[in-house]
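In the previous chapter we treated chains in isolation. Here, by contrast, the input contains two separate entities that must be folded as one system, with a combined length of 461 residues.
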Amino acid sequence: MSENVLTLDGVCKSYPGFDLRNVSLALPRGYIMGFVGPNGAGKTTTIRLIMDLARPDSGRITLLGQRMAANEIEVKQRIGYVPENHEFYSDMTVSWTAQFVGRQYPTWNETRFWELLHRYNVDPRKKIGALSKGTKAKLAMALALAHRPELLILDEPTSGLDPVVRRELLSDLVEFVADGDRSVLFSTHITSDLERVADYITFIVDGRVAASDEREAMLERARASNPTASIEDLLWTYAKGGH
Amino acid sequence: MLSLIWKDFYINRSQLVFPAIVLCAIALLAAMGRSSQASAEYAVPLLFTYSGLMVPFFALNSAMLEEKNRTLAFLRSLPMRADAIVASKFVSPLLVGALWAGASVLAALIMEAGAGESAVSIMSGVLLVCATLPVAAIELVVFFRFGASAARTALVITVGTVYLVPLLAQGLVAKVKPLVMAMMDPEPVHAVLFAGGSLLLYFAGMLLAQAIFRRREV
């Protein structure tokens, strides 16, 4: 069994009208985990807790073998994060933003960043405010990948992207984990993305983890009763309270 | 933290351009020998007004931009300490105040040379900048606790209070007047004590804001 790069153990968080209950999951090094659930299930809240943008009421989160609170800078330098809403300074240009972000990472690779920007067809002279949602997502992805993180955490990275870029981005994820040393956690509600790239899947429904396992093992179990079962079918079953 | 300070300067650069132009124009006119007592009478209130506005408005603008762009979460996701984000928001306006104070002292010296007599106590402009530090500290503490709109309200209330209280409390006017007069031409010891006290309050505000922001979810 390989080392886990991300572990959540009994994480709980309450907001008025929403509770995240006892969320536990483990992502082994070198794999891609899809974090899937309906809208409002708690995907973004969980990711915000992982990134220390919110504090859990209870439970334990370990990233790259360390707790974020104790080693905030070191852990964040080894993580690439793409949030659901891409928040940059709207009056600044793409290249200024890259310079600013690049200064925060000792492993920042300028050549790699420009390569990605070129591949995603993002104009570096443009101001952030003039970019579409999809282009901002591509910029966020380039920023997250350019410092060669060990763990990539993506919150709905493919929403708002056209099918061509979405496919490109997904193949980038596969390429990213190819050396067996890097891992990805990405949340989505687009189940076809998971079919394409996820090694592990965690289903979250109504603030609790409904299931978390290897994709193939899950599908195999489901196909024992329904030979054509897909990830979408599994999500449907869990969302309706089934097992 | 240097990159955060530089970022604040760069993003808010438009706010610094006009005061810098005014200051350069005043100094240039004085240097060309066109400064007279009459023009100094215009220039001095202008310098004083800007001295009172630079620090709190730079801090407010910086806070408003973070909120408008929703970039506090972006900064928190980068490998930097929450304390550094807060510290940069306090240090940048302080540097702006120091730069402004230095530049206006220079402009005042040039004016003095042009007019041939002392138009203004140089120290009083610097003290005015120091006097705005606690106001900016209150504003930034409120920003990190409640957001930019509340910070703007806090600025309006604080400045309003500073002006209104002595006016409303008639009995205070007589007591405040000597203080104002003393500020216009301060003793060096008083100036140092006042500046030190203001800085102390400012840094106390920074520590409070850091404690607030460390616990705040963004």
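The interface with chain B takes residues 48, 51-55, 72-74, 76-77, 81, 83, 85, 87-92, 96, 100-101, 103-105 of chain A (CB under 8 Å). The beta strands of chain A are 4-15, 18-28, 32-36, 58-63, 79-82, 151-155, 183-188, 200-205, 208-214. Compare these points with the single-chain example from earlier in the chapter.
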